[in-house]
Design brief:
By secondary structure, the chain is mostly helical. The protein is built from 19 helices and four strands. The chain is about 65% helix and about 5% strand. The strands form two sheets. A two-stranded antiparallel sheet has the order 1-4.
């Protein structure tokens, strides 16, 4: 049965190899079960409920990817998009988390329609590829900044905007210890370095009485505290005069970042696994995007932010994973982890902050692909890279990058038919800035 489903022999692999690859991928990305709930809890969402939703979304999405697309790609709620959900949409715009979940659900539905209609190619061509790396790295800086703030290493300062925090604080000292422990494990190429680092610092926090250890009873009812809470009516503006520009922007960012985050992951992982066609295209791309969009819909229904493909899937590929069986194994392990979800609320901020900092740092790697000697590429990339973390907004970074790239192209070469889609996208962002300034 497994041979018929995944074509193991044709891909030069075996059940044992695929199972090992799945376990490897799971261990490298299991930190999301701890980190995602703590980020979304800042938006007022119940930690145990989000932890359960994270496990369900990752489990369902990964299994779906393996079965319908036959790729060793694992899915889970995306880092960066969860920060955008919490700090920009809920805390920055004042949108209730239930309405924000409704926006995630709408973005998943729109992505599904675009996938079925084949519109994804037009979207890809509208955005300059040199910005892909800057977007990924900008989100990485955003995540790292949140981690530095949570660790107490960076604090607000009225004179200098930000300053170094109190290095004598127990939370800060624990976070520094976590950076050393996790960094050392990563340097030694330990697969589950991030997860081990989180658990080690958590144990130290309890032993040193820095964080209280008050485990509550295992209550399955707590797991449903975020399920089916997405407010579609609020997201659609029903009873409030219809859709607002702000809501449209939120949906666009969820959709846009999800799409290109997946595209970058697909290119990296399929290239590493030797699964790309001779012309560089990715076979069964439509099925991959279909699995991702359905997983986002399921995740929003369960109660978590946008689900994306994880670059950590490359660790499973390195371990020999070549088929969807790897992704199915990852999914099953996430579903098993569901039964530990209520205890995630015991993890202190000092334990997750180092993970955010280091995961953000790892997202800098794509910048090596940027041609910094060409101003037409480097200026938009730099603006995207810096505006995202400094304005606490992925949308602002995308806007500055795309508008500046379109302007430089227009001024350097004049109007060209091939760039019409880019100009339209840039014009939409300019309208958005104008609307924001007038509001």
């Amino acid at each position: 049965m497994l041979e018929r489903l995944f074509g193991l022999q044709a891909h030069g692999t075996s059940v044992r190899t695929e199972a090992l690859a799945g376990a490897t991928t799971f261990m490298t990305m299991a930190y999301i079960v701890l980190v995602n709930p703590l980020i979304l809890s800042e938006a007022g969402m119940p930690v145990a409920g989000v932890a359960a939703a994270t496990c369900l979304a990752a489990g369902f999405g990964s299994i779906l990817m393996g079965l319908i697309a036959n790729y060793s790609l694992a899915l889970a709620p995306g880092m960066g998009l969860n920060a955008y959900f919490t700090f920009t949409v809920v805390k920055g715009m004042g949108v209730p988390w239930q309405t924000a979940l409704g926006c995630v659900l709408i973005s998943g539905l729109v992505f599904l329609v675009l996938t079925l209609a084949g519109v994804r190619k037009l979207i890809v061509e509208a955005v300059p590829r040199p910005l892909f790396a800057a977007i990924a790295a900008g989100i990485g800086l955003f995540i790292a900044f949140i981690g530095l703030k949570g660790a107490g290493l960076v604090v607000a300062n009225p004179a200098t905007t930000v300053a170094l925090g109190d290095l004598k604080s127990p939370t800060t000292l624990l976070s520094l210890a976590g950076l050393v422990i996790t960094g050392a494990l990563m340097a030694r190429q330990v697969r589950a370095a991030v997860l081990i680092g989180i658990l080690t610092v958590t144990a130290l926090a309890f032993v040193l009485h820095v964080a209280p250890f008050k485990p509550g009873p295992y209550d399955l009812a707590a797991l449903s505290s975020t399920a089916f809470k997405a407010d579609l009516g609020g997201a659609l503006g029903l009873g409030k005069g219809g859709l607002s520009v702000a809501i449209l922007e939120i949906v666009f960012v969820f959709l846009f970042v999800d799409f290109f985050d997946n595209l970058g992951t697909l290119v990296a992982v399929t290239k590493r696994a030797g699964l790309q066609a001779p012309d560089g295209t990715i076979p069964r791309l439509n099925r991959i995007l279909l699995a991702d969009s359905v997983a986002t819909i399921a995740g929003a229904t369960a109660g978590t932010s946008t689900v994306v493909s994880y670059i950590e899937s490359a660790t499973g590929v390195a371990a020999g994973g070549r088929t969807g069986l790897t992704a199915v194994v990852v999914g099953v392990l996430f579903l098993v982890t569901l039964f530990l979800a209520p205890y995630v609320q015991l993890i202190p901020a000092a334990a997750t902050a180092p993970a955010l900092i280091l995961v953000g740092g790892m997202m800098m790697a794509p910048l090596a692909e940027t041609d910094w000697s060409d101003p037409e590429i480097s200026i938009p990339a730099f603006l995207t890279l810096t505006v995202i973390p400094l304005t606490f907004s992925i949308a602002n970074g995308l806007a500055f990058g795309i508008v500046s790239h379109a302007a430089l192209k227009l001024l350097r070469r004049g109007p060209r038919r091939a760039d019409i889609a880019l100009y339209v996208l840039a014009a939409l962002f300019i309208v958005r800035f104008a609307w924001t300034a007038a509001a």
